[in-house]
Design brief:
7-stranded mixed sheet; 9 helices; Peroxisomal Thiolase, Chain A, domain 1; single chain; 33% helix; globular; 335 residues
Length: 335
């Protein structure tokens, strides 16, 4: 087992799991953005015929996970675990989706880092010999998140320029012990980092130090440089957090260059009035399951580091004056 660990925080997989299939479902705003052609399915509205935004989000996650299963063509009985998470209290979107999927379920919460965390743990289960196939999925919904964390959307409150737009989207991957597709070769589990940022409208600033810390430790553990990757994508710092993380890394001697990008920056364009960019569990999930996976498969990208970034706060902690701890989990995907 010791041979699979490198340095302080990184695990290198002896038998890298394969990403057998990916599927993404997004809302109408996301479907109008620059990545619109890379999503598997675009909803026409935020409710999709359901009675509430929360029910709609769970339905969206179910659609994404079933889509990945169908794409892979693997019987549900051969999927050993389902790993899923979302932003809502007690991860209800995932719990209720699991109720319908009838697969042994492990619920995870890493805020917006949940996809990368799920990929890391799913890969450990497969590489460790505990599973043949693992289904991972995450979701977020703009209206459910706004209602829980900030203000009801009906109120029409003015948003700060540093604020990000929670993505309405769900992404799913089916990981397998064998097969054809990109492989997950390593994972770096992040540490919680808190620089005392307390502004819930500036989550990028809260998450940036954690992402920078994970990137630094990953590169140190594997004795690599930023140039060893075609893309290092955070998910999701937004424009403010991406710039701050770049500054932190520069002070540590790393000049990231254009290879360092962010899923929250990629998913929307300036004309969509999202201020600092996208956020939410679904943001990195749909960007990775769509755009990034496609670019790996066609050979445009050969080695990618996805660094999921999470703001680990709650409405309760914020109202009590707590700061916002941040974390970053990294997975490396190779063609």
């Amino acid at each position: 087992m010791d041979l699979k660990r490198m340095g302080n925080q990184t695990v290198v997989f002896a038998n890298p799991p394969v990403i057998l299939a990916s599927y993404s479902v997004v809302g109408p705003k996301e479907g109008q953005g620059p990545l619109k052609k890379t999503f598997s399915k675009v909803w026409n509205d935020q409710l999709h015929g359901e009675k509430s935004w929360e029910v709609a989000e769970s339905k969206m996650l179910q659609e994404a996970m079933q889509g990945a299963i169908d794409q892979a063509g693997i019987p549900k009985e051969q999927i050993d675990f389902m790993l899923a998470g979302d932003l809502l209290n007690q991860i209800i979107s995932s719990n209720f989706a699991a109720r319908q999927m009838a697969i042994p379920f492990i619920g995870l919460y890493g805020a917006c880092s949940t996809l990368a965390l799920s990929m890391a743990i799913g890969s450990m289960l497969i590489d460790g010999g505990f599973a043949r196939n693992v289904l991972v999925g995450v979701s977020s919904h703009h209206d459910t998140a706004e209602r829980q964390y900030r203000l009801p959307t009906e109120q029409g409150a003015q948003r700060a320029m540093s604020a990000q737009w929670t993505v309405t989207g769900a992404g799913s991957l089916l990981l397998g012990k064998s097969g054809t597709g990109p492989r997950i070769t390593s994972a770096t589990i992040g540490r919680v980092v808190d620089y005392a940022e307390s502004d819930v409208n500036n989550m990028g600033a809260a998450m940036a130090p954690g992402v920078a810390d994970t990137i630094l430790n990953h590169l140190h553990d594997l004795q690599r440089k930023p140039e060893d990757y075609d893309m290092i994508a955070s998910g999701d710092l937004g424009a403010v957090g991406l710039a701050l993380a770049g500054e932190v890394l520069k002070k540590s001697g790393l000049v990231m260059g254009t290879r360092f990008t962010d899923c929250g920056v990629m998913i929307f364009d300036a004309s969509q009035d999202v201020h600092a960019g996208g956020s939410g569990c679904g943001c990195s999930a749909v960007v990775f399951a769509g755009n990034i996976i496609h670019r790996i498969k066609v050979g445009e990208l050969r080695r990618v580091m996805l660094v999921g970034s999470g703001a680990l706060h709650s409405p309760t902690s914020s109202l009590q004056g707590e700061s916002i701890p941040g974390i970053g989990h990294a997975v490396v995907i190779q063609s």
